[in-house]
Amino acid sequence: MKILVTGTAGFIGFHLAERLASRGDDVVGLDNINDYYDQRVKYGRLAFSGIDGDAIGYGRLVHSSKHGNYRFVKLDLEDKTGIDELFRTEKFDAVCNLAAQAGVRYSLSNPEAYISANIVGFLNILEACRHNGVHNLSYASSSSVYGLNELQPFSVHHNVDHPVSLYAASKKANELMAHTYSHLYGIPTTGLRFFTVYGPWGRPDMALFLFTKAALEGRPIDVFNYGEMQRDFTYIDDIVEGIVRVIDNPAQPNPDWSGAAPDPGSSSAPYRVYNIGNNQPVRLMDFISAIEQALGKSIEKNLLPIQPGDVPSTYADVADLVRDFGYKPETPVQEGVRRFIAWYREFFNA
Catalytic: 185? Predict the structure, then answer.
């Protein structure tokens, strides 16, 4: 297939593009390489995929020196003219939209960035898919959409109308927008609610990266909710495996769906939503212990109250993922953390 993957200078998009290119798909990667976090990591990911940073220019496709079937373009999702031209020229079979303004806490101080990238940008993707015959659109949602929900494990069949951050609200909006296009235009769309993704080449704004960096520099770490936070930490390779299966199997209408008792996770249209999580919540203090074990040193901790926009616990119900794709993430946290630490030491010569 010819597949567009947006966000390929980002964590998940980079890994997905590598996987698809390695199996022989014709892949175009897209990213605007913004400065939300350390651009060295973003350019490092691109370099690993054979994309020469010096050859990158806005709107220009760059061929990978590693994969003959992988090209990259620097482009903003909000650039409707550029997005439309790319779709018209390339004629993609499938699109996986992973580009977004990420981060719960950043959304408290920079709300405009989320409307621009996550709402306007996603609309441009939907419109381009509509007008260019794309057969399958998958896109990143987030476990953040569960917001104030307390019933766990979180299920795609639960109502999610009470987000606690604008980031979460923008992801819920993406799901609603996708359903509209599935209903009106028959575009198969699948939303993927990722649960705390971690692993090599991870995001520098995430806990694992921040804790590792601080520990190696001999600094204390801030531990919110006094370490009692629980997260369904999910290893990057498990996330990518789930995405690939969704790309290979476009959403189908649910023949049993009823407007009298509407199921939020499916539709009479070709629309689906899935959780991709490890299905095993881990206490934050236990996660930190795994980091300490992998580093062979203890970390000084500043215990702090929970921050606005954070939820105390996440726990993914992956029954639908297992039923429809015969797949369930399973990498243990200790193993995933060990692999991340090994990558971090190599990349930063730490």
Answer: no
